[in-house]
Design brief:
Layout: H1 2-23, E1 29-31, E2 34-38, E3 43-53, E4 58-68, H2 69-75, H3 84-89, E5 93-96, H4 97-101, E6 107-109, H5 115-136, H6 140-147, H7 159-172, H8 176-192, H9 201-212, H10 217-222
Antiparallel strand pairs: 1-2, 2-3, 3-4, 4-5, 4-6
């Protein structure tokens, strides 16, 4: 069992090395278990390789992320409890690849795995599914459309994640009045769903409104 885990661990590292080599041709740079590249001046794209351990194997999935640096600096900047690593690797928009295409996309690593076949299969899926998704989410307008989509609930982005980012996306699109209203609506939704973020959300809203020079709708309610 110990030798099997050692071999599995070595195969995982070899997998990441091979993926790094392949993805480098598409300008992705490895950052531990994720690969990121700059897409536009404002947006960066990432592929996070998630490895879930079981007694018999390692299940591997690919998570897509699109990051707007300015938005993420506000979305997480208010929370001093978060590590620098978390702040620097978060995504404004994200989804597990299989959930997005509505079918299971998963690979298994065990002592019998053929590394080359595994890498080829993952690269085929990345080219066939992930890259086209990135192409369809190349602007904040397109990302915003997903925040109000019914399919959003099926993705890995949480209610809290949306509450932090949706108003900011609106603000950066120049829709200040809609952003202010969104802060209020998301606060009410967090309360309705009894989300843990609800109690701290006013702190975030005050921080965000200060950064963006917006009126704070929650402060106005308190006054």
């Amino acid at each position: 069992m110990i030798m099997e885990k050692i071999k599995r661990s070595a195969l995982k590292e070899m997998l990441f090395t091979e993926l790094a080599s392949n993805l480098a041709t598409m300008n992705f740079v490895r950052q531990e278990q994720r690969f990121a590249r700059t897409h536009t001046k404002e947006l960066a794209q990432s592929l996070h390789i998630n490895c879930a351990e079981t007694p018999d194997c390692t299940n591997v999935t690919v998570h897509l992320g699109i990051r707007h640096e300015a938005i993420e600096s506000i979305a997480l900047g208010w929370n001093q409890a978060l590590s620098k690593k978390v702040r620097n690797s978060s995504a404004t928009w994200g989804v597990e690849l299989g959930q997005y295409v509505d079918r299971e996309i998963l690979w298994t690593i065990n002592e019998h795995s053929n590394l080359q076949k595994l890498v080829c299969s993952m690269m085929d899926s990345i080219k066939s599914y992930a890259l086209p998704v990135f192409g369809k989410r190349s602007s904040l307008e397109e990302i915003l459309s997903d925040f109000s989509s019914e399919s959003f609930r099926q993705w890995h982005q949480t209610l809290g994640g949306r509450a932090l980012r949706m108003p900011l996306v609106l603000a950066y699109l120049g829709r200040e009045s809609m952003a202010v209203k969104a802060f209020e609506e998301q606060y009410a939704l967090l309360a309705k769903k009894q989300d843990l973020l609800h109690s701290d959300y006013p702190i975030f809203v005050a921080y965000a409104c200060g950064k963006l020079n917006l009126s704070n709708p929650l402060k106005l309610k308190e006054d």
